[in-house]
Amino acid sequence: MIEIDDLEFRYEQDGFGLRVSELRIPAAESVALVGPSGCGKTTLLNLLAGIVVPNEGNIRFEGRELTRLDDAARRAFRISTVGMVFQEFELLNYLNVEENILLPFLLNSSQRLTYETRKNVGELAESLGLKSLLKRPIDRLSHGERQRVAIARALITNPPLLLADEPTGNLDPATRDQIVDLIFEQAATRQATLMMATHDHSLIGRFDRVIDFSCPGESKIELLQSESAHPVPSVERPS
Amino acid sequence: MSGTFLLARRHLWHHRWRSVVLVACLTLTFLLPIGLRIFTSEFEARLSARAETTPLVVGAAGSEFDLVLHALYFKGQPSRETTISEANRISDGGLAQAIPMLVRFKAEGRPIVGTTADYLSFRKLSIANGHSWNCRGDCLVGANVAENLSLEPGDGLMTEPENLFDLEGSLPLRMRVSGVLTETSSPDDDAVFVDIDTAWIIAGIGHGHASSKKRSPTKNATDSEEPGGADKPEHDPSVVEYTEITKENADSFHFHGDRSSFPVTAILAIPHDEESETLLIGRYLADDDPAQIIRPVEVIDELLEIVIRIRRFFEATFVAMTAVTAALIGLFIVLSVQLRQREFATMFRIGCARFMILRLVGSELLILFVLSGLVTALVIVGFAVAMPNFSLQS
To answer: Is B4–A153 a contact, with Cβ atoms under 8 angstroms apart?
Structure first.
């Protein structure tokens, strides 16, 4: 369960910010974050991942108060609890597929790279259709394959919270559907909470819940001094 | 292998040409000052060692440097020569042993050192193969000469004429290799040693020929003046001058003129004790003395002063070069980190600590420095193995 109360966050540089009066997301729920560019979707994901710290208010994940954690503890939380998928894949082109998937382990001495982990990589790669590509360099993969590698990297630590920031933004429709299927399938298998920022209205019907940033009243999320924010029609809710 | 080290290795390999350029720059930065230091130290050590084992050198008055370099390293020629009578003067004085040297000629580009057997014992030169010179025309070759020219005892070695265009000059002499000296890692390895009489024959002071109108068959085998006193032999075109000393013609070789006036280019003087050394030096103090006596150590120390000054200049240059390289590498790191901002941001978002990113960059630098160190060491060792006497030959 994610619980947010009276949260306020402002970027120091431009005063852009976000206020969330109340938000409750039960475990294993899938949530779509929709709204125009610059409305704060990525900021909310960053707050949930502990990448940025709110100026005020609380964020709790499974009863754990994120705002009280120091930098190291938030990092540990991020690596053990959060899996992140980005629009631009953000893979390291000097590593092969397997090494990219194992990146959370390579970057953290606290995460032991065991035989079990390597076995998990094999299984995960198989479930994502990457088994034959494990030793392939990243620059020899298609966009769809790259995003699958990014999903595998997000899932390798078996996180209970999966945050995806417009993961289909760079994909063609056919590949987009495959990737979304994969994300939903993997989140469901792991009973992980899925929060996905997306511009793609055709996807929102698949989520348990949609948070529309352009409707502050409903979402209880309010933009603070956004430069690029502009009104957009509210999206339809799933029935 | 730690994760950061693996990432660093992969990153460097991915940008391998850039890494190679960096390693090359660092290697040069290490190699030049270290190489210079090793080379000059080796040069100093070898120069000093040779000078320290040679107590005194006597030669015609002139440049001290020329005389020492000539007598010790067979390099260059003193502007003037002295005579064998100077060596006799030292020996007869009872203060020192005199070893005459005539180093004026070459064979296959190697200096021919005309001397006495005392030189071999003084320099502790032993014979690895063959035997010492038994008769005129025999020569002993240094280890490098034997190796480079593939010479063995019994082979022949031709002297080079002093001047190719001097038709009246002495004829080249075919010497017989009687032995090969043991390697000593000194200039002796690159020289050819002959008895001083042979050196004088090469110089044309002595010669042998089939017949001469003025020569008496009963007197032609001695080391004395030409029969008939100081008379010049009458030129006879039918006379065939020998270019090789053999058992059959050895007796026909003879010298012209006063033996005491025969030239030597340097004399090694080995005093019996310190007092003898002081007394011997005292005998050459007169300003008008046509000869000079030198302590090689003093001259070499003076020479090394110049070498050390030059080295200091280069070292200062290298310090500046190292500072420039360090600044460039610093700039490279800053630019590289800026270019990799996105990559580092991704790492941070995944959960990587900022110090891990520093560790990653540090690991990359460490690998580059270690590789450069290894290449530097390999180049130096390779160079030392391939050219063990480089500093000596230079």
So the answer is: no
CA nearest B357 in A: which residue? Answer: A107
> Does residue B100 sit within a domain?
yes
Same domain assignment for residues B154 and B68:
yes
pLDDT (mean) for B203-208 = 80
Do B41 and B110 reside in the same domain of the chain? no
Q: What is the pLDDT of residues A71-82, one digit of tens each?
A: 889 988 988 899
Task: Find chain B residues with C-beta within 8 A of A46's C-beta.
Answer: 349
Classify each residue of A177-212 as buried b or exposed e, where b means 16 or more C-beta atoms within 10 Å of its C-beta.
Answer: ebbbebbbebbeebebbbbbbbebeebbeebeebbb
Q: Is residue B225 over pLDDT 50?
A: no
Range of the domain at B73: 56-210+245-294
Length of chain B counted residue by residue: 394
Same domain, B41 and B62: no
Helix B341-350 × helix A71-81 angle, to 10°? 80
Contacts A107 to B, Cβ<8 Å: 3-4, 7, 347, 350-352, 356
Nearest-angstrom CA–CA distance, A185 and B154: 92
In a domain, residue B367? The reply is yes
pLDDT of A111 over the 80 cut: no
What are the backbone dihedrals phi and psi of residue B115, each rounded to the nearest 5 degrees, phi first? -155, -165
Q: What is the mean pLDDT of residues B109-116?
A: 94
Closest by alpha carbon to B343, among A3, A49, A15, A89? A89
Looking at the fold, whether B201 and B155 belong to one and the same domain comes out as yes
B229 falls within a domain: no
Q: Supply the pTM of this predicted model.
A: 0.68
Question: What are the distances in angstroms from CA A207 to CA A196, B66, B134?
Answer: 9, 96, 109
Segment A166-201, tens digit of pLDDT: 888 877 888 888 888 889 988 998 899 999 999 888
- pLDDT at residue B392 tops 60: no
B36 and B66 co-located in one domain:
no
CB contact under 8 Å between A107 and B13, yes or no, is no
Say if B225 falls within a structural domain: no
Give CA B144 to chain center in angstroms: 11
- What was the ipTM of the complex prediction? 0.82
Q: Answer yes or no: do B186 and B119 share one domain.
A: yes
Same domain, B90 and B132: yes
The number of folded domains in chain B is 2
pLDDT tens digit sequence for B236-248: 556 666 677 877 7
Are the beta carbons of B350 and A72 separated by less than 8 Å?
no
Shared-domain flag, residues B110 and B256: yes
Domain end residue (candidates: B268, B294, B320): B294
